[in-house]
Structure formats: C-alpha cells, structure tokens
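Section 3.1: Structural characterization of target chains.
Under the original work plan, the team committed to producing a structural model for every single-chain target entering the pipeline before any wet-lab resources were allocated. The record below documents one such target. The sequence was received from the expression subgroup and is listed exactly as submitted; it comprises 196 residues.
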Amino acid sequence: MGQRERLMAAAKRCLEEKGYARTTSRDLASAADANVASINYHYGSKEELLTAALLETVDGWAEKVVGAPAPSPSDPADPPAAGERLPRVWSEMIESFATDRAMIVATVEALAQAERLPQVGAQIAAAYERARASLAGDLHGAEPWDERTARALASVHMALIAGLSLQWLVDTENAPSADDVLLGLRALLADLGPAR
C-alpha cells in the first residue's frame, strides 16, 4: 500500500475514532506512518483528505443500504417494484443509523466546515451531484422519467436521508421509523393531489 492509500485508510480510521472536527494532521500522519507534509502533497489539505475519506465511506454505506440498481420492470425476473422496495430500503437505512453513527456525526461535522472551506464545499457538492444522477434509478428502477423529474426525486430522497439522520442523532427515541416515513409521504402525496 502506497503512502496515498495509507493516508486514506488512516483518515477513515480517524473519522471513526475521533470524528471530522477532532482529527488533526498529526493524527492522520501518525496513523498512516507518514509525515504531515504528505497530506498536503497527496490531498491538498487535511480537510480535503478527511472529506474524500468521508465521501468514500458514505458511498460504501449507500451501496450497502440501497444495493444494486433495480433493473427494468420489463424483465419478469426483476426484483420487487419501488413500492415494495422502498419500505425495505428505508427500514435498512434507519437501522444503519445505529451501526454507522460515527459516519453520520462526521458527515454533520464536514457539512459545517463547507461554509468556511470552499474546497470542502466543492467536494461535497460534487458528491451530491453524483448522487442526484443515480439515486432515483437505484431506488425506483428504470422508470420513464425525464431528467428533471429523476433529479427532483433523487433530491427529495437526499433531503429525507439528511433529515432522518439528524433526527436520529439528536432524538433516537422519537425519530420516525420506516413505517412513519412512508405514512407521512403517503399523506403528503394525498394532500398535494394530482400534478398540474
């Protein structure tokens, strides 16, 4: 494993053990058996390294929770439709908040840094854009949506994920379950009525 890879592995460990805000350049260098200057050489800054490590961790979490994209509904061997798939995905996602708490805390800490560190904001914005490009298809399969609708649907899912994770962090006992989320979404859709 080269120095760059050791730094990435060290950053993931430090995020898990110390979080985004409390990890220092010395922590990273020590955990990677590297010198502090190597962080800037390979990643530009401590924050850019931590953000890259966090985004890789979040991508792995999303793949674990969402799973492979749902294939086209035209194939009878396809997995369940979105209406059957979404309750499972939301349930697994909410359950993962307990096992992946450190990742959620590090994400909140990184988001707070994005306001003052443009390079961190740019990394997170690029990750959001990548997620918007694929999330609707991953969760709903190959629906005949235009690009704007697919993007909007992915953005709504992302807003729900962010909001649920924050509620879970600060008030686990009263945070909504997957059934609560689906009940609320159905009520919201009924209240919205047909599209105009």
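Residues 51-192 form a domain with the Tetracycline Repressor; domain 2 fold (CATH 1.10.357).
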